[in-house]
Amino acid sequence: MEETAPAGATNPSVVLPGGSRGSTQTGMRLYNERLILSLIRRHRSLAKVEIARLTGLSTQTTTVIINRLEADGLVLAGEPQRGRIGQPSVPYSLNPAGAFGLGLMIGRRSSDLVLMDFTAGIRARRRTIYSFPVPEDIMAFAEREMPSLLAELPEAQHGRISGLGVAMPFELWNWEADLQTPPGVLGKWRDFNVAAELSRRFGPWPVHVCNDATSACAAELTFGAGAAYRDFAYFYIGAFIGGGIVLNGSLFPGRSGNAGALGSMPIMRREDNGETSVQQLIRTASIYQLERRLIAAGRPGTDIWLSPEDWSSFEEPLDAWVTAAAEALAQAIAALLAVIDFEAVIIDGAFPLDVRRRLVARTNEHWARMDRQGLTDAVVVEGSIGRDARAIGGAALPLLAAFARDHDVLFRD
């Protein structure tokens, strides 16, 4: 992940955990704040006594931290819950207006600019669709739409914006042939510094950049059903398929930020003429392959992107794509489980919910028929966020940097 400014630099009214630590004692306090916020996010609401039990902190320390978080506007006290004995218990939940993140999702066929609140609610969105991504066009889109996006948030809350996160594919220039773009067009990305360009346009906000599929995985882990699993592999199917890895309840980005590049996994692909070949998963289970099937059937490929919630009008090419993608995904799952015994494999993507359901069901059918000797079984399930996973993951980057649990805060000066 790339970052251009310290988290919390733009909001003097709220002490963000991403700010200056000062001492190990201060680091411990910030770590405990982040831990409590993470627990409340996972459980949706918790009383002080429950927080103390889960963290091992004393009730007095828990009370001090909760009071501070409530004063900062990050948590809200709920209605007292009366039990059988003792004082009523007050549950605390995250305040949606406690902090905001801006997200820019740069895809191969479209881009989204979103304003997201502290509980992953998208407050405003702007979208642009194109044949292929051009750096200067996307920067112009962000610059043009940002003022109206921010206008939908009361000005008094602008100081609670933690920063701007960018979710985008890495090394876009390598995919010109698959996207069938004019030669050299995507090569502009090779030397284009997205974080620097956005920082230049939008001033002091910290800018974070992360692989788009990794961002989607982070969104599933933080805001979706992924929190139920300690270890899982994650597939996100967009124009190109990508993925992410979660180990011990934490996102594992790898040394280069490219861990979980599952689209590059080799699989046996069955061609329409019955022959087989070894190809990367990306060339079977990606939506651009469905786009090509539509074009071959005499339909505009743009129907996929212009009708994001209903693909029923091109059922025949869709069913053929689902069958091929599911078979390829089952092979990839076997390869993944031969390396790490994941508890779950989660499949999500930029398609209608009924298509996701069919794809996961078909993948499970192929997976059940495979030779799994020596492999520890894993559940193969649907993701819970859907098309917005990359945009939510992007907007979550500055929020996670400022508020997520981070063991390193204990040791930073």
From TrEMBL:
Q: Determine if Kinase is one of this entry's keywords.
A: yes
Q: Which Pfam families match?
A: HTH_24, ROK
Q: Where is this region: Disordered?
A: 1-25
What CDD domains does its record include?
ASKHA_ATPase_ROK
Q: Which SUPFAM superfamilies match?
A: Actin-like ATPase domain, Winged helix' DNA-binding domain
Sorted keywords for this record are: Kinase, Transferase
Q: Name one GO molecular function term.
A: kinase activity
Q: Under which name does UniProt file this protein?
A: Sugar kinase
| Source organism of the structure | Bradyrhizobium iriomotense
